[in-house]
Amino acid sequence: MGRELTGRKVFAITASAFAIIIAVNVYMAVKAVGTFPGLEVANSYVASQNFDRERNAQEALGWTLTDSYEAGELRLSFRDSAGHPVTLGDIAATVGRTTEAAEDKTPIFVHEGGDYVAPLDLGPGRWMVLLEARAEDGTRFHKRLDISVKD
Q1: Is 125 helix (H, G, I), strand (E, B) or coil?
Q2: Number of neighbours of residue 141 by Cβ within 10 angstroms
Q3: Which of 41, 43, 58, 118 is the S-S candidate for 107 at Cβ 3.0 to 4.6 Å?
Q4: Angle CA(109)–CA(150)–CA(146) in degrees, nearest 5?
Q5: At 1, is the pLDDT very low, low, confident or very high (cuts 50, 70, 90)?
Q6: What residues does each domain of the chain span?
Q7: Which InterPro entries does the record cross-reference, listed alphabetically (predicted)?
Q8: Residue 75's CB: how many other CB atoms inside 10 A?
Q9: Residue 93 and residue 131 in contact, taking contact as beta carbons nearer than 8 Å
Q10: pLDDT tens-digit profile of 74-107?
Q11: Sign of the CA dihedral 103, 104, 108, 112?
Q12: Which CATH number fits domain 63-149: 2.60.40.1220, 3.20.19.10, 2.60.40.10, 3.40.50.1820?
């Protein structure tokens, strides 16, 4: 026959189960707080005023942007309201996974036949491009692009 199940054993089993649950919860909370980037802006009212001003300036440019990723190449096509290619004053981007910064890349764009092209090796899955460009007059154009790369 086996050992007798006493109240102390039941308490030890229950306490051990709760200790494991609490330990896992504490570990997950610490990991979550450790990966949180923190405060985005110090004053949300001031940030909203700047946002409105920048959005209006960007919309006044009248640009459309078409993006594509094929064969290790990110291609961005900026067009003005008449459909003509736009010459930028500056362009920069950060390309990374939507969930973490470990695979972030900063491609170098070359102006090629009206488009801006960057060689970029992306693995399969979802990618995010945080794009910032400037018009020749200094007006900031920024946009988030989502790219899905197939296997």
Answers
A1: strand
A2: 22
A3: 118
A4: 50
A5: low
A6: 63-149
A7: FixH, FixH_proteobacterial
A8: 16
A9: yes
A10: 999 999 999 999 999 899 999 999 888 888 999 9
A11: positive
A12: 2.60.40.1220
